[in-house]
Amino acid sequence: MTLRVPLEHYPGFNRFVIDWLHGDSRFLPRAQHTKRARSIDATLVDALVDSNRRWGLAVKDDLQRWAAGQSIAIVGGQQVGFAGGPLYTLAKIATLLKMKRDFERGGTPATVLFWLATEDHDFDEVAQLSLPVRNRQRDLLCMRAARSAESKVAVGRVAIPEPLIAEFLAIEGTERPSWLREGITFGESFAELVASIFGSEIILVDSLLPELRRAGKPLFDSIFAQWQDIERSISDRSGELVHAGYAAQVLPREGESYSLLFELDDRFERHVLDAPRLIPAERISTSALTRPLLQDFVLQPDIFVGGPAEVAYYAQITPLYEMLKVPMPRVALRGHALVAPKRVVRFMERYDIRPEEIFTAPDALLAAREPAGVAAIRREADAARKELMKHIERIGELALPAEHALARAITRSIGHIEYHFNKLTERAIRGLVRKDKERYAAARELLATLYPDRHVQDRIAGWYPYWSQYGRHLIDSMIDEIEPDTASFSIIGI
Fold it and tell me: Is 400 left (phi over 0), alpha (psi -120 to 50) or beta?
């Protein structure tokens, strides 16, 4: 059971991306992909074969087809979040595999490469997980690891804190898996988990792989050579986006320029480069704006699949592709999907709740289903309020000649009366709504599942607990039902 809902109803969705999906290609082309000739250095291919073998993936043949340009290359990526990160990570992978299978059903070989963003230094983002807790009347349980000190170490090389692992295992009630063994890093853990579930249908690319950085050296040299022109181009394009009514996805540092590249020290800490500097390629780390350029220069994809923020990155740096002579892939939006038990999804039909209403509080949502009763309460309340105000005004008219200080007291009293009157009215409405207890409980469970803690589920809820409950059925349902590059999201009953 799957429902489709326009992305316009997804809270906080990037307006630029919605317009782009509907055909506005002023800042980012919407052209179909064209299969490109490709020649990848054998050293990088061997390094990818070895790293994937370490994670349990046998991908040598697939990599050789990709390197020789004998398959469509589809690329996506994600931060290496704890225990797989939020549900949208699974939606990204499902989108990539859906596209791969569609190509292969049509007789075209396709290779999926998943970019592991191990170089990011946002520890707070990767070292947390929000879990849907079964059989409990709560929305999410948020687990968070505190870092011992502020640092900018690339998170892919940081060991997962033991307290975070212990808390996760206690909640899940499972034995310790190998992908959470003592001392394992966020990068290795994420890679091993994904490999254990998806197998060799997907090739993992560690963004900190030295051979990948060395393959990017010509690009780094070009960025250093055109540093000021690149800064100016990003600033100009950002201004164009703002002038068109959109927000630039990446802003310059306060009072300074945009971050283009970082230098990695011996401890993998990242230090922003303010100007070109002679650095070994394996010590260079990209920013949000230059990561797509490195990925597309080295992996030479035909199609890039990203979330709304990543699509917006491309809009901000489109002019750089021509400037740096990097072929741009076709950019596609990942599929957006929320998941819930089928019985919860059926609540929508049973209680006449439209999919676009799932982001409304239960009281407000159900009040709309009781229009006659709510309207009657409001009519009576308005009439009573007017009548009361009329009598209070008459009291003032009678008393003011004898007590001049009474005017201020009357004003204060009116404010208090109106406040409590409004509270009484809203309480009466809530009482009317709650009289249908079954419907109220259903709406509460529906919203707690798909909009927990007033966050859209796929942005915050971890996907691993769903996997541990539903197993392969979850994966198959996501791949079958997800819709890449469309202006709608799916609510999938599992």
Answer: alpha
Q: How far apart are CA 70 and CA 108, in angstroms?
A: 9
Tokens of 375: 């309207």
Identify whether the C-beta of residue 326 lies closer than 8 Å to the C-beta of residue 220: no
User: Tokens 């009072």 — which residue?
Assistant: 255
CB atoms inside a 10 Å sphere around CB 50: 12
CB 421 within 8 A of CB 381: yes
What phi and psi values does residue 186 have, to the nearest 5 degrees?
-60, -40
Q: Are 466 and 132 in contact (CB under 8 A)?
A: yes
What is the reported pTM?
A: 0.85
Q: Taking residues 384-394, report their average pLDDT.
A: 78
> Please, which residues bridge with residue 130 across strands?
142, 461
Residue pair 316/289 in contact by the 8 Å Cβ criterion: yes
Higher pLDDT, 419 or 482: 482
Distance between CA atoms of 223 and 229, rounded to whole angstroms? 9
Residue type, 483: E
Sequence-distant (≥ 6) Cβ neighbours of residue 316 within 8 angstroms:
234, 237, 238, 241, 248, 249, 250, 289
**395: how many CB neighbours lie within 10 A of its CB?**
12
Instruction: Output the pLDDT for position 454.
Output: 85
Mean pLDDT of 206-224: 96
Q: What percent of the chain has pLDDT over 70?
A: 91
Two structure tokens written together for 275: 């100007």
C-alpha–C-alpha distance, residues 433 and 233, integer Å: 56
- Rounded distance, CA 273 to CA 261, Å? 6
CB 128 within 8 A of CB 294: no
Which ranges of 216-273 does DSSP label H, i.e. alpha helix?
Answer: 217-225, 227-243
